[in-house]
Every structure is written in C-alpha cells, then in structure tokens.
Amino acid sequence: MYCKNCGKEIFPDQNICSNCGAQQQPIQEKDSGGFGYGVLGFFFPFIGLILFLVLRESKPNTAKAAGIGALAGEITKVLLFILLIVIQITSVRMSMMP
User: Fold this and answer.
1) What does the pLDDT look like over 53-72, one tens digit per residue?
2) Considering just the CA atoms, what is the radius of gyration of the chain in Å?
3) What sections of 1-98 are H helices per DSSP?
C-alpha cells in the first residue's frame, strides 16, 4: 500500500504515513445488499443461511439479503406444503361424497 499524499510505501494497517504524516483513509468494500444473494437464498435456503453466517460481520447488507431470501424460501415451502395438504384432504372428501 502507498501513501495517498507522498507515494511512499506504507504498511496496510497504518492509518498515518510515517514519512509525511498524512491521514490514510481505509479502503472500504462496497456492500450494496445484493439482490442476487437474496434470490440465491430463496431457491437454496441452506446456502443463504451459510452466506448469512459467513458475511454478517464483513458485509451486513449482503448477509441480510441472503438471510431474508433463505427465510422467505423456507416460509414459501411451508405454505405450499400446507396448501398441498388442504387440496389433498379436499380432494379425498370430494371423492367420498355420493
């Protein structure tokens, strides 16, 4: 890493240049939340949960998107399963009517 003021090489963890004394701004990664991570979590909830747990410290917005996607995917599965059971019960009752 190099000083943004004088160009002298400095250690990555240095906040102040030892040569000129200029304050160094830490490089921050972009954390936009990623719609794609939410979709991935929706269709593959286990992967979404893993991404949530791994990224929650370094990229909280992306982790949140993956976690919400995983949660929405699981809730959708449960609701569809309940709907399937209701349809099956209704179908059986209809077939038993004279």
Assistant:
1) 999 988 899 999 999 999 99
2) 26
3) 35-43, 45-55, 60-96
